[in-house]
Amino acid sequence: MTFKLTSPLDMHLHLREGEMLKTVAPLSARTFAGGVIMPNLVLPVDNENRLREYETAVRQACSPHQFEPYMTLFFKNYSAKFLEKIRDRIIGIKLYPAGITTHSEGGVDSLQQAQPTFAAMQELQIPLLVHGETDGFVLDRERDFLSNYAWLAKSFPRLKIIMEHITTAAAVDFLQLYENIYATVTVHHLLITLDDVAGGMLRPHLFCKPIAKRPQDREALLDAALQAHPKLMLGSDSAPHPVHRKESSCCAAGIFTAPIALQLLLVLFEKYGKLDYLQDFVSDNAQWIYDITAPKKEVRFEKKNFSVPEKYGDIVPMFAGEELAWHLVEP
Ligand code: NCD
Ligand code: ZN
C-alpha cells in the first residue's frame, strides 16, 4: 500500500544555522515542498541583511531538493517604510514574548507599544505569527495568553494572526471566535501529554515549549486535525538541539520531528480512518490560509516498517530507535 501527498508544507520550522542547518535542512526538504522558517537564531533575523544571508544559507542547505523557504522576521517595532520594503521577502513576522522560549530574549515586553507595527502589518497584509504564552504557571500559559489574542484580533481585524503550536482545547475553541485567527499544531502535541514527558521517568527529548498538556487537550487538538479544521494547519515546530543540550541538568526545549513528521501523521490519520483529510491538513489549508501556491511536489510513502535512527548527526529525533509503520519512498 502506498500513499501520495502533494506539496506538503511545514508551517513552523526551526532550521538553525551552520552545521546544524546543514544536518537538518535536507531532512525537511526531502519530504516537504516548503516551510515557514523561524527567525529565533542566536542573532535573531531582524534586518534585511540578516534575512538575505539566512535565506541564502537555507536555500543552499536544502539544495538539490525542491523546497521553498518561507522566511520570517523576528518581531520588533519596525517602521512602515522598512516593512513596505521587506514585505515581498517574508511570509510573516514572528512575535515572541520576551524570554518565553529558546533565543527569545529580544522579544516583546508590551503589546501596547507594538501597536504601530501591528497597524503597518495590517495595511501591508503581513501575517503576524505568535508564540502565545504568558510567563505564568506553565500549564496555564497558553490559556492565559488568549486574552491577548482577543485584543489583537479585535484591534486589528484585517491582520492575519496565527496562533503558533496550539496545545489546548481552549485554543481550538478560540479559533471560532474571530475571523482573522488561525493556528498551527505540531505532530507531537497530537501524540503526547504531560504524562509522557514527566509522568514516569523524565523524557528530555519530549520536552518542548509549549509543554504538552492534559489528555482532554490532546483529544481536542486531534479531533480538529483529523477533520482538517480549515483554520488549522501543520507546523511541526521541529526544534533540534544537540544531544548534550537535551540530556542535561538544564534541558533545552524543543522536539526534533522533521524527518518523521509526515510518517507519524500517516500512522495517526490511518489509525482513525481519516487519511482522506491528511492532504488538507498538511498542505491545502496552509495554502488557503496564507494565500500562497506551494511548489508542486509529490511525495510517496509506503506501508513498510521503518526504524527511526537513534541520531541524525548529534541530534536525537522523537521516537529514536522505534519502528514506524510508514516509510518514505525515495524519489
Ligand atoms: C523552540 C526552539 O528550540 O527554537 N523550542 C520549542 O520548544 N518549541 C522555540 C519555540 O518554538 O518555542
Ligand atoms: Zn517553534
What does this structure look like?
There is one protein chain. The protein has 331 residues and is α/β, with parallel strands linked by helices. It has one domain (2-329): TIM Barrel, CATH 3.20.20. 35% of the residues lie in helices and 17% in strands. It has helices at 18-29, 48-62, 80-86, 115-124, 141-155, 169-174, 188-191, 194-199, 215-226, 243-246, 261-271, 278-290; strands spanning 2-6, 9-13, 34-37, 68-74, 92-95, 128-130, 161-163, 181-185, 232-234, 298-307, 323-329. It has an eight-stranded parallel beta sheet. It has a three-stranded antiparallel beta sheet with strand order 1-10-11, with helices on one face. Helix 1 (18-29) packs across helix 2 (48-62). The chain starts with a strand and ends with a strand. Residues 12, 14, 38, 237, 239 line the site of zinc ion.
Q: How far from one another are the termini?
A: 16 Å
Share of residues in strands:
15-25%
**Spatial shape:** globular
Give the total of domains.
1
Biggest sheet overview = 8 strands, parallel
Ligand identities: N-carbamoyl-L-aspartate, zinc ion
Q: Count the DSSP helices.
A: 12
Helix percent reads: 25-40%
Number of strands: 11
Predict the CATH topology. Answer: TIM Barrel
The class by helix and strand makeup works out as alpha/beta
- Reading the helices and strands in chain order gives EEHEHEHEHEHEHEHHHEHHHEE
CATH homologous superfamily? Answer: Metal-dependent hydrolases
Rg from alpha-carbon coordinates: 18 Å
Regions with little confidence, pLDDT below 50 for 5+ residues: none
In the CATH hierarchy, what is the class? Answer: Alpha Beta
What order do the strands of the largest sheet run in, or round the barrel if closed? 2-3-4-5-6-7-8-9
Quick check: average pLDDT?
98
